[in-house]
Structure formats: C-alpha cells, structure tokens
Amino acid sequence: MNLKRVGNQTVVFANPPVILSSYSVVGPMEAQGPLGKTFDKVWPDNINGEKSWEIAESKLLQEAMQGAIDQAGVPNDQIDFMLAGDLLNQIISSNFAARKLGLPFIGLYGACSTMALGMAVGSMLIDGGFARHVLVGVSSHHDTAERQYRLPTEQGGQRSLSAQWTVTGAGAVILGQSGAGPRIPAVTLGRVLDYGETDAGNMGAAMAPAIADTILNHLQDLQRQPTDYNLIASGDLGSVGANLTREVMQRSGTPLGPEYTDCGLLVYDQKQDVHAGGSGCGCSAVVFAGSIMQRLKAGELKRVLLIGSGALHSPTSSLQGESIPGIGHAVVIEA
Amino acid sequence: MPNQNLRPPTIAVTPKDYQDLAKKLTPKPTIVRNSFWAFMVGGTICALGQVIINLFAAAGLGRQEASTAATALMILLGALLTGIGVYDEIGKYAGAGSIVPVTGFANSIVSPALEFKREGYVLGVGARLFTVAGPVLVFGITTSIVVGMVYYLWH
After folding, report:
1. Between B11, B88, B94, which is nearest A212 by CB?
2. Given A1, A110, A320, B137, which residue has the most CB atoms within 10 angstroms?
3. Contact status of A315 with chain B (Cβ, < 8 Å)
4. Residues A162, A221: one domain?
5. With an 8 Å Cβ cutoff, is A121 touching chain B?
6. Phi, then psi, of A325 in degrees rounded to 5
7. Do A169 and A193 lie in a common domain?
8. Residue A209 falls inside a structural domain
9. Could you give the CA distance from residue A313 to residue A129 in angstroms, rounded to a whole number?
C-alpha cells in the first residue's frame, strides 16, 4: 500500500480533494468589518429571534452548512459525512445542527482550530476512499463564548488589551473527489505544545508556539519555503499571537515575510474596539469560506496555507491554574 | 526545557525565553487612562448619590433614612442601566469606577440574572445569581465578622 504520509506530520493526497462550495453566515459586527462584503449571509443581530444564544449559534452553523450544500448542488444522499465542531460544552451547536441536517455525523473538537481540523480529516476521508462528499462546518458566537468562558454578557468589566473578540459566525465547505474548485493537496496535523502561558485573556500567546511548530514541520516535510505560499494565514492568534509567531519563526531560522497574516487581524477593523483581534472557530472559518475562497477562485491567490489555531483549555483548568496547551492544524489550498 | 517527546524540528525557543518574549510583546494595561476614567465616572456616580441624598434630606427624611433611600435608588438605577444594556458599555471605559459603587453591585447581580434566566428561575437565576457578587459577599461578610470580633475584644 502506498503510504501518503510524508515526513513528520504531513499527509499528501494522491487525488487532492476539491472544495466544491463554501458558505459563511455572520453577525452584524463581522459584517461591519473590513471583510463585510465577502460573507454570504448576515444576521441583523446576534440572536435573530431564537430563544437562546446557544440555539442561535446552532442555527448559524445549520444555515452555513445548508448554504454550502445548496451552493454545491450535491444531493444529501451523496454527502457521506458531516464533520462539525464548536466551542460550547459537549459541542452542542454542532450536535443540534446535525440533528436538523440528518447526515452521518462526526463531532470534532479542536477549539478554534476545528475548521482546519475538519478540512484535514474530511480530505483524508475522501482521498482514502471512505466518502464521496464531506460537509465540514464550524461555528462560534460572541455571547455563548462570553457566558461559558468568561462573565455574563451584561457585566460591566474591562477586557485586557491582549484579549480577543469571539466571532459570531459559521463557515462551511463541501469537499468532493472531483469537480471545479480549489484543491487540498496536503495537510499537516499539529501537535499540542504548551509553553506555560496561563492567562486566558492572552490566548494568542498560548497558541503561537504550536502554530510555529506546525509551520516549521509543514515546511520541512514538504521541503518548502514560506515564500512558496501567496498567503499563510493562522486562524485566530490576534495581534499578540501573530507577532509572537513571527518572532518565534525568526528565532527558529525560518522568518515569515509579508505572506503571513492572521484571520483574527483580518476580520475586524481596529476601530471596532476588539483589542487584539477576532477569535473563535468561526473566525478562520468565515475568513476562509468568504474572502480567501473568493481570492482563490479569482486567481489572486494560487497557494494558501491555512493554520487553524486552538487553545485547548477549559474554564475549569484555567481556574485550577493550569497553563493553556495550544495546537495548530495546517491545510494547503491551491487554486 | 521543551517537551522531549517532540520529534524535531520544533521551535528554537525555550519556555523561559518564550515567556519573557510573550511578556515583552503583550501590551500593558493603560493604567493612567484607566485610572482617569475610573476616577471621573466613579466620582460622578458618587456625586449623583450625594445629590440624591441631599434631595431626600431636603424633602424631610432624616440623615440615615435619606442615605438608605438614596442607596436603594442608586441600586435601581444600576439595575435599570444593566437591563437596557448600557452599564456594560460604561464599565468598558470606567472599569473600577463603575464596579466599586453600589450601582456596580447592582450590575453584578442583575447581569447573571439576565444571563441565566434561560436556564430557568430555580437552577438558572436562583443558583447563579451570585456568580459575580458571591466572592464579594463571602469575603465582605467574613471581614466584617473579624473586624466586629476585634472591636468587641478591644472594648
């Protein structure tokens, strides 16, 4: 059997899966950001008439997934797996969306890296011959995240300058064996690294080592340079984490140039008072499903490396003083 | 020492160096600006409280009663501003200036009440009403007991 594993952590596909469609749904604040016009659907407010924040988040995910299905024009009986994840306890947004969509469901948890993780696992399912089409989607919601990880939404406190703003939004893609669209030739699954950051208000700093580790291994596994990519985008490191990633990469002998950016820096404007930038599963998902996919299709980008970044802590572990483990999953996308 | 189980390559930074780097690249809180706004907003809330006390006193209440009535009114105001979604916006700029006065205490009670109402009145609102204010009550009451005992023994 021809092994598709290359180097330390990378999988190179024999028949690169195709991204047949992508769909993004966001809240009003994301729509007011610099990428506002790239999203497929915008909610008028963060709850959109649902009875709770959690149900609203699940609805976001469901709409993004249904949007991707409709856009790809693939009948439901040809979608063999639905891969989804979110930040809520027991990934209820995904579970409830799966209850509605009725597809064979694999729930994933990679914290905010889940979109890249889902695209990586989905691609392996397709290239491995286990599926014809795979639906991948993730969501996050500012208010569900606040109440689960931090404080009641109406509590009047101050956020630290390194804190990030959870994106209210969901993104989804349909992966297939063949057809028109950008392809996924390789993925690099990350390792969990913990360099001792304990501040849950500084998650960029907690995740940066894992992101740099994944980029280093990816480049070595495929014998590439950062400049082989038009865009290297981490998921949600924000300004602090992105600066740390640059610095760590520099010190590790592989400096990143202007091709490197972070979805958390792209999704909001500085004026929107989000401090260090956007975060959440939805952050990289809506930036990828919207802006990056459109630029790939327009031929503006030829080869992209998307590195989903996840902080693998819980409110309980943080209260108990544990440091925050980070992870990064990289997906190559070629036009 | 980085994790020895990681197959090379991995980042060429030790956890100690990384923590120093992270400290250097993390923006520091704007203490002067925060203090200024805390002072201004906190002072305004307290001045408003004083005006209300004076008004109650002028209306014929005794000093103690005027104080109590004013506190009740300030709590109502804090709760109302929380309910209509304004108090957290004030808190964003004022920080301690809007947390420390009694209006902040109202905010710390009303915000969980709003937040957890969807989980029901007993296990939602009832059980989680003091998630923010709980520690203040526990340590405030404990301190008052200790101070009371010291006072009692002293005299």
Report:
1. B11
2. A110
3. no
4. no
5. no
6. -75, 145
7. no
8. yes
9. 34
CATH of the domain at A169: 3.40.47.40
Summarised one tens digit per residue, pLDDT across range B48-89 is 999 999 999 999 999 999 999 999 999 999 999 999 999 999
What pLDDT score does B4 carry?
A: 86
SS3 per residue for B90-147: HHHHHCHHHHCCHHHHHHHHHHHHHHCHHHCHHHHHHHHCCCCCHHHHHHHHHHHHHH
According to the model, what pLDDT value does residue B155 have?
85
Euclidean distance between CA atoms A204 and B78, whole angstroms: 34
Provide the residue range defining the domain that includes A133.
5-176
Same domain, A192 and A164: no
The encoded tokens of residue A17 equal 């899966």
Q: What is the mean pLDDT of chain A?
A: 97
Residues A285 and A323 both lie in one domain: yes
- Tell whether A181 is covered by a domain: no
Give the burial class of A102: count Cβ atoms within 10 A of its Cβ; 0-12 exposed, 13-18 middle, 19 or more buried. Answer: exposed
* Successive 10-residue mean pLDDT values, chain B, 155 residues: 85 95 94 95 97 96 96 97 96 93 95 95 95 94 97 93
CB contact under 8 Å between A155 and B11, yes or no, is no
User: In whole angstroms, what is the distance from residue A49 CA to residue A46 CA?
Assistant: 9
How far A306 CA lies from chain B's nearest CA (Å)? 19
Instruction: Report the residue of chain B nearest A274, measured CA to CA.
Output: B92
Let me know whether A324 and A217 are in one domain: yes
Q: How far is CA A53 from the centre of its chain?
A: 21
Q: Do A154 and B85 touch (CB under 8 A)?
A: yes
Q: Which of A244, A250, A248 is nearest to A264 (CA)?
A: A244
Please write the tens of the pLDDT for every residue from A302-324: 999 999 999 999 999 999 999 99
- Alpha carbons A231 and A32: distance in angstroms, whole number: 24
Q: Which of chain A's residues have a Cβ under 8 Å away from the Cβ of B90? A: 156
Query: What CA–CA distance (Å, rounded) separates B135 from A25?
Result: 39
Same domain? A61 vs A160: yes
Burial class (CB in 10 A: 0-12, 13-18, 19+), A130: exposed
Mutate to test the interface with B, among A46, A54, A155 (most CBs of B within 10 A): A155
Whether A240 sits inside 8 A of B26 (CB atoms) is: yes
